[in-house]
Each structure stands twice: as structure tokens, then as C-alpha cells.
Amino acid sequence: MSRAKSSHPIHYTLRLANPHAHILRVSMTVMQPDPAGQRFSLPTWIPGSYLIREFAKHIVTLQADTEAGPLPIHKTDKHSWQAAPCDGPLTLSYDIYAYDLSVRSAYFDAHRAFINGSSVFLSVTGQEHSPCHVDIIAPPGKHYQNWRVATALPRRKKSAGGAPALGFGGYQAPNYDALIDHPLEIGHFETRQFTAAGTVHHLIISGVHHADLDRLCADTAKICQAHLDLFGGRAPFGEYWFLLHVVGDGYGGLEHRDSTALLASRNDLPTSHEPLAPSNGYRQLLGLISHEYFHAWNVKRIKPAAYAPYDLSKEAYTKLLWAFEGITSYYDELMLVRSGVIPPEDYLAGLAETLTLTTRFPGNSIQTLEEASFDTWIKYYRPDENSPNAHANYYGKGGLVSWLLDWTLRQHTNKSLDDVMRALWQRYGEPFDTHGEGMAENAWERLASQISGLNLTVFFDTHLRTPSDVVSALLDIAPHFGVNTQRRAAKDSQDRGGKILHPAPPIGSHLGIRTSADPLGAKLTTVFTGSAAERAGLAAGDVLIALDHLRITHSNLDKQLTHLPPESNLTAHAFRRDQLLTLPLKLAHTPLDTFGLAPNPQADSDADTQKRYSAWLGSGIEK
Ligand code: ZN
Hints:
Number of strands: 30
Radius of gyration: 27 Å
Bound molecules: zinc ion
């Protein structure tokens, strides 16, 4: 049943109730419930992470009350409830179990709380556009008296019970959609602040670390400035919040309209003696920061029609994730080099790693990027042992297609992908409000052709709708952009490509597997399509214990293979579950699936090449 829009705010109270049981307690009051019986529901997924996650499974108890006493309420499906008809204010009270360390849900213990609204705030059916008030109540006890709250969720006015800066108390959102798009970090944390384009950016760092936060803050500021410059120098938000949680081993990020939640490994943070050119781990963290920040434009505001508005009760299908994740992946490290926080050599080495990974996963030659986007709900977010053979990666390969498009535009027109992004921003982003217009599925391609004046039909048909060889296309153009390339065999199983090696490693023997450690030998996590291991009859899950009658482990496999020439015929022993397999196996040659990239120092003699290189990376080629 539909109802007239209510002007009464929905009032939520969020209590950090029991840290040791990881229980959050919410009570919410609806002043004018649907007289026919009010419905409530919780999202089944969180925007930015395309998997049905069933957050309602963590609701432990739930009850409804009116001023007259308890009100019957029952579930109508896995994530929805219906209360009995009533007149007056209706209050729901429920407990949620919150113990998910990821950036996607909710976590609470005696050290910290991290909360996404999509895991804890029920929506009121028919009143999704009503303003929301939230009171956040600290855990009881002395232990918690210095805890603070960091969030982009706006505070209410002091006169209306508003929270002090970084404090517990009253917050608000103009509607439900906004309410659940501002995660909360609660506990002890350190803060840094910088201003870019006149806009305050907060850096909130929680967890145990010994990092140089001033370095992190300075580098982040440069990266943000580069993004802001790309999109015309004006921030689309009033403030921005980076909520970074540091753990021993972890990695993840999730974009929100005015903030991002980040999870990083302690060793990836900069140390006080961090070199000027960041270590690989720190470069990866800066790339993550850059990636999520770019999303503030690309997917949070420029978005597909399928997300405008989000339907969080079921899957939202689009073929455009190659653009929202692939282009974002392309720009994340590109902005590191343009802002000067990494040198061009390291940027090119990173691109070479993506070329390598894309080539090594046969699925990139099987599935198209449009199919990968559409099927993300059942494929990318539900990987299994065969995923590398069957799935295209719209992050990695999508980034390569974005790079190829950028180079194609720069080579044949006076435009670039930057111009397309600015045009998308003007058309779909800037007029954005929370229920703004998303783009039709074919709008991206149409606008790119319009802006560049090129007919890009063949380009998009090839690279989005066939499983194209984007790697070879990029290697062909590289000389025109002052980039030297190397295609070679891998040195060992740890070789991910990157820099150009002189001399190139020799071609050795190849099994075509990925392994992990196992007490008995080397456990096969992937057996690649068409590999020597597959031809011999080995499968993912098998534990390889001997090759040529010599013991194999995860750590000695590389070494053992160097002693066996390619095309050797030998015997492999492996366990499949508890059954011993004895298999004849013929070793293959190491494929040329590894790439190196570097600036070509000779290219500065060619003015056009030099110009293209510096327009692309924002710096000249150094001799
Ligand atoms: Zn992303």
C-alpha cells in the first residue's frame, strides 16, 4: 500500500549494548505507521559489493510496541517484517550480532565498533524519503568513556540534541538512502586533516600501528587534489572522511558518497623511513585510497540507471561494471603518478603486473566484460577453483580496456579519457541528488563517441562484447607513447611481471597450476585450462606429493621444476581426497605470459611521442 509522504522523521537509537557478545541494540520509532500494518525491511546487499549477503541473518531478536503495549509483528520474507495495524507511534526494538571485520557489515567488541547502516537500520516501507534521526549511545562503563565517533553522517544542531564533533549523540540524514551511506567508526583512533579544493578531508586511523601518519596524510592530500583537478576543481561533497582500520593482515575498501571504509595491513602503512618512492605495500594502500576516492564521482554520483535508486531487496543488474570498476581501477594508480607520489617507472611496472595477471587467467579470453559485469552476483563475488579459467575480471581487464581507450583517443584525437569523464560528470554527476538520474546502459558508449568525435562502435563491440586480446593491442601502441615493452617467461612462480629484465629469464618447465601449502605436499588451488597438469588428469583440490619420484612441497616446487627439462615425460603422484593417483605427465614449456614495461629514454628525440607521454602521465621522460 502506498501512503502520503510523512514529514515526521524516523527516529533511531543505536546502543553499543554488549561488546563481549558483539550485540548492537536498535530501537526505532515511526510516528505515523501505515494504518494497514507497517512493513519494515533490511537491505540484502550493500552498494559497492555485489553479492546478496542477507544482513538480516544477524538480527537476533525483534519486537514491536505501541503506547498501548506489545504489538504483533511477523516476517513476510527473509529480510522483511510486517507489524499489526496500529494508530499511534510504533517502536521496533531489535538486537544485532555484529562481528564481521570486513568493510561491508558491522563489527563490535571491547576495542572498537565499525557500523554500516545497511546492516543495522531497518527501512520503513513507504517512508524511505522521510528524514532520519539517529542517536548513538556509548557503551556503558568507564572503559569506553574516551571512545569517539567518526562518520560523514551530519550531526544534528546542538539545540536538537546534536552530537559534539567526533562525539556520541544526535546525527541526521535527509532520507534512508543517505542514512545507510555513511559508515561509523567508533572507539579510539587517530585523526589527521587536510584541505583540498577548499574542502576539509578527515583521515581517521584505527587499530594498532607504528605508521608515519603525516606522510600518509601528505600523500593522500596530493592524490585527492589530482582527482579534484581532473573533475574541474570543485568537490561534490561538503567534507570527506577516510575511515582506515589497520590489522595484521587484511585488505579491502568500500566507497560511499562522502567517505570510504578501508582495511589495510599494518606493514603496508608508511614507516618513518619510508623511501620517497613508496614500497610495493604502501603503493598498494595509496592505490586503494585513490580508487575509493575516485568512486565519489564514478559510481556514487555518475551511476547506472540500475542503481538510481538502489533496490537493496534483490540483485541490481548492469553491464557497466567494466566502466564503474575498470575505469576506477585505471585511474587509481594513474593518479598516483600524476600527483607525483610514485615515479613513472613504478606506475608502468604496476601496469605490467596487470597485463601479466590478465594474460595468465584464461577466463579473460572466455567471458566478455559485459557478461562479467552482469553476472558479478554469481561469479566475481562467488569465486571457486575454476574461476580463473572461466571468469573475466572487470577490474583488471576493465582497467586495461580503459587504458586502451585512453591511448586510442589520445592517439587519434585531441581528447582523452579525462575529457570523457568530465563530460559524464557534467551530464550525470553534477546535477546529482540522492534520487538523481542514472545512465542508460548504452549512454556511456554514446557519450564517449560524441566527445571524441570518433566512431567507437568497433572498439566497444570488440572489447566489451567479445573476449578480446586487449594486451596485444596495448603492446602495439606502446611505442607511440614512449613505453618499452617486454613479453617473456616467468622467472618462477613468484614472478608477477613489472620491470623489464635483462637478460630475460630462460624458458623452463611448466605445470600450469597454483598451489598452497599442505602437510602432505603442494595443494592445487587452480589447474589452468590446457595446462600440462590438466592433460595429466590433475585437478584443483589434489595434493601433489611427488614428481619423478621426488617429494614435492608448496615451497620446493619451483626448485624441483628447474631440474626437469621441458617436455620431460615423468610420473606424478598425488592424493585426491584419500586416494593415491599415479599419473604419467609431460611437462610443458613456460609460456610467454609475463610482461615488463619501462619508459623509453630514446623517445625524447621524437617530439610527438614525448608530448603524448607527458600529457598522459603528467611528467616528461627522464634520460
Ligand atoms: Zn571499486
